[in-house]
Write a structure and sequence with these properties.
hydrolase; 7 helices; 6-stranded mixed barrel; 2 domains; Plant_Aspart_Prot_A1; PEPTIDASE_A1; 5-stranded mixed β-sheet; single chain; glycoprotein; Cathepsin D, subunit A, domain 1; alpha+beta
């Protein structure tokens, strides 16, 4: 069922694109749809679920270790010939998807877009002609621009413990903390991105994994790593084009219309120029892939309540925000003093702080803004819709939770980032935040 939905989705998107001529890296950048997994534009959308059900499911994914965690790679069996290259990447789920066109002629793939990993890979046919997994499949033999990377190349040597197959091709093995992994051949190919549904931007010689074996659950045609490492799409665009190593997104709120989607921007389109933009430098983290910044203090309703500098990862693939208890506990206490609502029992005991808002208009909830102060003095204001979610009719819960054994790192999740234009610049080593109307921005970009 899911495989059929993926194929139909790809055909519909491809049919709606206007063909353009040759390669186009002009214009300084491009933007694509950033599709939430629960959006009506996603093949994983379940119409039987209410908006509250979807938010509750996303909270479950965050709290049950399916996000950035500390888990080590499990021993998932791989074909004996594929000793490969293993990269221990921390466990996570996925929340956003993007369409990529691979090869010449292009094959459209719907891939997970992941700010928490680096490798770009797609589902390929193996030597026997079988696909590594259900869904969209890229057939290298049908592309005139496909090339295999030698195991003696710099690209292959850039992966840990590079491995050669009998033909001296670069075998890779890329693992995730939940035991999932992809195994295949490191290759290069032309990737085509459709900007605004019309203009095509072609980028040749993108290093990617042509996956012929998968273990675990990958409910998409592949994965586009948007992390800070050398193999990510962001870094490769910086090397192959004039775009620079920068990207941004503007996440529409969960209350937006069913046919709306967020935008993912590259190059000059990724510049955050809205008034009041707050810029903070990237700081060294335990994993180079992640976008780590310093969170210095928090304020509620303009009143500072806690100062305790801690590293926090900015991540689109995590739903909730995880904070150091030294910051979260005084924040929750101050919210409790200011919010004049009756406490409610949290559904499934997932979120600890919930309120009963039955029969009350939203303007009567009395929820104050929360301000995060990052390193460099940048202040980011979180509105009530960034800090609270309606998990069932009449029950409003705080979407800020303490770090835990399952998720022992602080993470700024995607609910907190909704209606913010968030820009990542690896050349300048900064992350920039600005308040924005992301639904309006998405509508404007899709019509341009």
């Amino acid at each position: 069922m899911e495989a059929t939905a993926l194929v139909l989705f790809a055909l519909l998107v491809l049919a709606g694109q206007r063909a353009c001529a040759a390669s186009d890296a002009g214009g300084g950048g491009f933007r694509v749809e950033f599709i939430h997994r629960d959006s009506a534009r996603s093949p994983f959308h379940d119409p039987a679920l209410s908006p509250h059900d979807r938010l509750l499911a996303a909270a479950r994914r965050s709290l049950r270790g399916e996000v950035l965690g500390r888990s080590v790679l499990a021993a998932a069996p791989a074909p004996a010939a594929d000793s490969g290259v293993e990269s221990k990447i921390i466990s996570r789920s996925f929340e956003y998807l993007m369409a990529v066109n691979v090869g010449t002629p292009p094959t459209q793939m719907l891939a997970i877009a992941d700010t928490g990993s680096d490798l770009v890979w797609v589902n390929c046919r193996n030597g026997s002609g079988a696909a590594a997994a259900a869904g969209g499949v890229f057939a290298p033999s049908r592309s005139s621009t496909y090339e295999v990377v030698s195991c003696r190349s710099d690209a292959c040597q850039g992966l840990n413990q590079a491995s050669c197959d009998s033909a001296s091709n670069c075998q890779y093995q890329y693992g995730y903390g939940d035991g999932s992994r992809t195994v295949g051949v490191l290759s290069t190919e032309t990737f085509t991105f459709v900007d605004g549904g019309a203009r095509q931007v072609q980028v040749p010689h993108v290093d990617f994994g042509c996956s012929t074996y998968m273990a675990g659950t990958f409910r998409a045609d592949g994965l586009v790593g948007l992390g800070a490492g050398a193999f990510s799409l962001v870094s490769q665009l910086g090397s192959a084009t004039s775009f620079g190593r920068r990207f941004s997104y503007c996440l529409i709120p969960s209350s937006a219309g069913a046919n709306s989607s967020s935008t993912l921007n590259f190059g000059s389109r990724a510049v955050v120029s809205e008034p009041g933009a707050a810029k903070t430098p990237l700081v060294p983290g335990e994993v180079d892939t992640y976008y780590t910044v310093a969170l210095e203090s928090v304020a509620v309703g303009g009143r500072a309540v806690a100062s305790n500098e801690s590293a926090i990862i900015v991540d689109s693939g995590t739903t909730l925000t995880f904070l150091d208890p030294a910051l979260l506990q005084p924040l929750v206490a101050e919210l409790g003093r200011r919010i004049n609502l009756t406490r409610a029992q949290p559904p499934e005991q997932l979120l600890e702080v919930c309120y009963d808002v039955s029969g009350r208009a939203q303007e009567d909830w009395g929820i104050p803004d929360v301000t995060l102060r990052f390193g460099g003095g940048g202040d980011v204001t979180l509105r009530p819709e960034n800090t609270f979610v309606m998990v069932q009719e009449g029950t409003l819960c705080l979407a800020l939770v303490p770090v835990s054994e399952a998720t022992p790192v602080s993470i700024l999740g995607n609910i907190a980032q909704q209606n913010l234009h968030v820009g990542y610049d690896l050349d300048a080593r900064t992350v920039t935040f600005a308040a924005a109307d992301c639904t309006r921005s998405s509508s404007a970009s899709s019509s341009s």
